Amino acid sequence: MKLYTFEVQGRQRVGVERAGQIVDFSDSNAPQTMLDLIRAGVNGLAAARDVLQNGKTIHALADVRLLAPIPRPGKILCSGLNYKSHIEENPAAKFLEDPRFFAKLPNCVIGPQQPIRTPGAKFQVDYEVELAVVIGALLPQGTAQDQIMDHIFGYTIFHDVSARWIQFKDNNETMGKNFDTFAPMGPCIVTADEIPDPATLRLSLHLNGQTMQDHTNADWCFPLLRLISWLSMAMTLEPGDVVTTGTPAGVGYFRNPQVFLQPGDVCVLEIEGIGRLENPVATA
Is the pTM above the cut of 0.85? Predict the structure, then answer.
C-alpha cells in the first residue's frame, strides 16, 4: 500500500492510494493520523486494507495538498558514507569498519512542493537523495539482525539537505544538517510488504531537469539489517522513527565545478516503487 498524509479543505487527513487516487480514512474506523496508524501495528494495516477495498471518500491527487507522510517524526537517524561511490568521490573520506550516523531534527521536515529555504550562497546548500526506513513495531535495544524486518513499517524518499559551509568549516554536522526545511520527505510511505528487497531499488535526483545522482542500492557499504542492528546496539527505536540509508555519488560539493542549490531551482527525487518527491528552492 501507498499511504499518504494530506490536507483537504484545511484539514489534515490520512489516505491510501487506489488507482491513482487517494481513498480517505476520515469516514472509517482506521487510525486518523499516520503515527497512530503505525503504532496500531497489524491492526492498523488491516484497517488500511479495508479502506483500500471499501472506502468511499476519494480525492484526486491534484485536489489535495500532500504533506510529509509523518509530519512530525520521532528520531531521524541518517546514515553517512554508506555508498561506495560517495566515498570514492570524497577525497577526505575512507571506507568505514562500522556504520556511521548523525541526527536530523523533526522540525526540519517538510512535504512535497514545500520550498527548501536556502540561507544564502555562502552556505553551500547541497542535495542528497536517500531511501528512508520507517520503523513500525518497537525495536528494543540489542535486537538481532534476523528479527529487524519484523519491525519495519515501510519506506519513503528522504532529501538530506546540507549547508556544507557550516557542516565542514568547524566539523559542525548537527547545525549544518538541521536548518529549517532541510528534510523534505514523501510523497508517501510504501508498506514493507511491497518492497521485499530494498537493496535492489534505483534512486535518482534531478536538479532543474539535469540528472545529478542515479544509482542502485547495490552500492551500499552496509546492508539495511546491518545499519539498523548497529543503531539497536545503542538505542531503542520506536514507531514513527526514521532511519535513512545514505546517498550515492553526485552531490554538489564534490562536483567540478561545484553545484549548490539556488532560489528558483527545482529538485526532483525518485525511488522506484515509491514515487517522486519534488521541492522548489526559495530564499529563507
Answer: yes
